Structure to design on (176 residues):
């Protein structure tokens, strides 16, 4: 449970920071929503604010000790990830090539790997909620510490998926 809380929590924390702490992050996110054409123009700002508030809610709920808050955090994370996945899928079906602004500035266009990442994270959030409800609390403190470290690393890797995939792309004249 601790590992999943850290994994999902760090992904949402990095997404929140990418939109609020990074200069131009929120504006870039709002522009990407416009370019995806999944939200009516009149609702772009309120939807962008709701997304940021939802991400903050996930981070807070997963950071606060307790089973109930963890279940709320995992549930909110699952709902947000499924909404993000649906929005990205609709945008891709319409031919949108807008960059992913999930974690701040990026030039990587949204693609199927973003759908896969979000679905995998949603599955992990559901698993986190389920294990929080049915499993015993984490046992040994050392085990919880190892699980937390693994969750933080895996969450950071999920948040930097675009950069990791770029490492394995063939070099083009533009990238040299």
């Amino acid at each position: 449970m601790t590992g999943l809380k850290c994994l999902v929590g760090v992904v949402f924390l990095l997404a929140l920071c990418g939109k609020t702490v990074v200069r131009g992050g929120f504006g870039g996110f709002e522009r990407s929503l416009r370019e995806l054409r999944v939200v009516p123009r009149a609702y772009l700002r309120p939807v962008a604010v709701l997304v940021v508030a939802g991400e903050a809610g996930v981070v807070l709920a997963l950071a606060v000790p307790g089973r109930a808050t963890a279940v709320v955090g995992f549930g909110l994370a699952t709902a947000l990830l499924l909404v993000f996945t649906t929005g990205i899928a609709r945008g891709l079906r319409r031919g949108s090539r807008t960059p992913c602004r999930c974690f701040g500035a990026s030039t990587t266009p949204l693609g199927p790997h973003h759908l896969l990442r979000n679905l995998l994270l949603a599955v992990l959030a559901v698993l986190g909620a389920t294990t929080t409800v049915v499993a015993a609390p984490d046992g040994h403190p050392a085990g919880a510490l190892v699980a937390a470290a693994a969750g933080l690393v895996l969450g950071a890797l999920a948040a930097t998926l675009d950069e990791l995939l770029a490492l394995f792309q063939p070099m083009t004249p533009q990238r040299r």
